[in-house]
Amino acid sequence: xxxxxxxxxxxxxxxxxxxxxxxxxxxxxxxxxxxxxxxxxxxxxxxxxxxxxxxxxxxxxxxxxxxxxxxxxxxxxxxxxxxxxxxxxxxxxxxxxxxxxxxxxxxxxxxxxxxxxxxxxxxxxxxxxxxxxxxxxxxxxxxxxxxxxxxxxxxxxxxxxxxxxxxxxxxxxxxxxxxxxxxxxxxxxxxxxxxxxxxxxxxxxxxxxxxxxxxxxxxxxxxxxxxxxxxxxxxxxxxxxxxxxxxxxxxxxxxxxxxxxxxxxxxxxxxxxxxxxxxxxxxxxxxxxxxxxxxxxxxxxxxxxxxxxxxxxxxxxxxx
Length: 320
Hints:
Layout: H1 2-21, E1 26-28, E2 37-43, E3 52-58, E4 62-65, E5 78-80, E6 83-87, E7 90-94, E8 97-102, E9 105-111, E10 113-119, E11 123-129, E12 132-138, E13 152-154, E14 156-157, E15 164-172, E16 178-181, E17 189-192, E18 197-208, E19 214-226, E20 230-239, E21 241-242, E22 265-267, E23 273-281, E24 290-296, E25 304-305, E26 310-319
Parallel strand pairs: 2-4, 19-23
Antiparallel strand pairs: 1-26, 2-3, 5-12, 6-7, 8-9, 9-26, 10-11, 12-13, 12-24, 14-24, 15-20, 15-26, 16-17, 16-25, 18-19, 18-24, 19-21, 22-23
């Protein structure tokens, strides 16, 4: 009987905890259900073929034609790696994010792709593009491949303290154990090691110095990488850990502070895009000023990836 009670007690405790585990209150991120997309038709320059390409943005349903820079519409907080570029007068587009239907659900498909540029049959350039969606904006038109983070304003104002980022997702991972580096500026290079899809949520407490520089303390961290195929999964959670996590057993180097060349950019009070240097870890009870959320088909440096790595994501929300 005593042995039976010893077994029964932990089982009862586990059952008691179940309602707490599943009782998250969800706060959807606007347009994070991937039901609405804004469609853009852009005509590329004749020198590279003159084709009309279609780009997709996460925002209010709509359609436009013409070579115009895009700015977030309808209060959408989302940007994508789909871009309209105009380099030395040549118009080129890139589309690595699009809406698709998976298991009856409309989702965002973000995929690593090689963009080929062929000019008059003489010049052939390749650029590796990661499919990415994030909270923020892209500054179009893109005029060069230099300083890619400097063309993205990352994050949005946010002062709450969620316990998790919640979403539905699926990952398709090709068997290749190599990556390609292709910037369009030279020959392609093959690198060893498999690329990984990634989703993260970061909470920051930002401030601006007298010279317009932006700084931050890291308030909360949730970051996962996916090195294998994962079947369609609903209600996946990335736990947000508050305070200094650098000595926690679950800590990985990629969860560290973003500073130096790793710093993302944001607009300062004068509207200028400048890097946000994370100076340290905030106390565990700190209140954030901004949140960053990103989902990408790649976790490496810009213009490096494994072609075909695909992440599908939907119903992105904060959990409390």
